[in-house]
Amino acid sequence: MVSAPSSDGLIYVPPGVTRSAKIVISGSFGVGKTTFVGSVSQIPPLRMEERITQASAGVDDLARTPRKTTTTVGLDFGRLHLSDALVLYLFGTPGQDRFRPLWAGLTEGALGALVLVDTRNLEASFEILALHEAQGTPYAVAVNLFDGAPYYQLDEIRQALDLDPETPLTTCDAREGSSGVLALITLCEYLSHQHAPAHASVLEPRP
């Protein structure tokens, strides 16, 4: 459910919403985080992007994304009403190593993370997964189905990424909102079975 714009042009959270959760959308450079947040958000997404310039030469690997002309330098932000009672606040992280200092703030208070991966460069995901594990952030992994990317069975990808058996692993097309929502549902179903006390207050109804 999405509220219609009010008289001031803003889209407010519906009054029936009783729960909210902060979800981080992470992954390596060029994996589709900005596209994902934009496709699933039910409000105009906030994007902090800059054009890729010559200064990025030799720093950002554009070999797999030659048409990429912008990069996230802060965050992407979107909002998704997953049900009449639950709203997700989505925070997309920058993928480049030089923006890692932003991670602490962006992931603080997050209920969980959805990590996007690209089969053309799975090894780029190792550091991202390690960061979430070091911070104790529960996560699910979604393989972004890029056109022309190699296809592997999910069991093969799980083994290549050395994921724990209980870590959710699914696929999505970051360009399609419905596909992204299904990936987020997979994450939320996993999080609902987590019993860590630190997460309980996030799931409690608002007073």
Walkthrough of the structure:
The chain is of the alpha/beta class and 207 residues long. The chain has a single domain, classed as P-loop containing nucleotide triphosphate hydrolases (Rossmann fold, 3-Layer(aba) Sandwich), CATH 3.40.50. The chain has helices at residues 33-40, 103-107, 126-135, 154-161, 177-192, 197-203, and strands spanning 19-27, 46-51, 70-81, 86-92, 112-117, 139-144, 169-172. Strands 2-3-4-1-5-6-7 form a 7-stranded mixed beta sheet, sandwiched between helices. Strand 5 (112-117), helix 3 and strand 6 (139-144) form a beta-alpha-beta unit. The protein starts with 18 loop residues before the first strand and ends with a helix. Belongs to the GPN-loop GTPase family.
Name the features.
nucleotide-binding; 7-stranded mixed β-sheet; Rossmann fold; 207 residues; alpha/beta; 6 helices; Gpn; disordered C terminus; globular; 24% strand
Summed over residues and divided by their number, the pLDDT gives a mean of 81
Strand order of the largest sheet: 2-3-4-1-5-6-7
By DSSP (H or I, 4+ residues per run), the number of helices equals: 6
List the uncertain runs.
Answer: 52-60, 65-69, 198-207
CATH superfamily: P-loop containing nucleotide triphosphate hydrolases
Largest sheet: 7 strands, mixed
- Helix-strand topology string: EHEEEHEHEHEHH
β-strand percent reads: 15-25%
List the domain count as a whole number: 1
In the CATH hierarchy, the architecture is 3-Layer(aba) Sandwich
Secondary-structure-based class equals alpha/beta
CATH topology: Rossmann fold
User: Could you estimate the helical fraction of the residues in percent?
Assistant: 25-40%
Instruction: Give the oligomeric state.
Output: single chain
CATH level-1 class: Alpha Beta
| CA distance, first residue to last residue | 21 Å
Shape: globular
Number of strands: 7
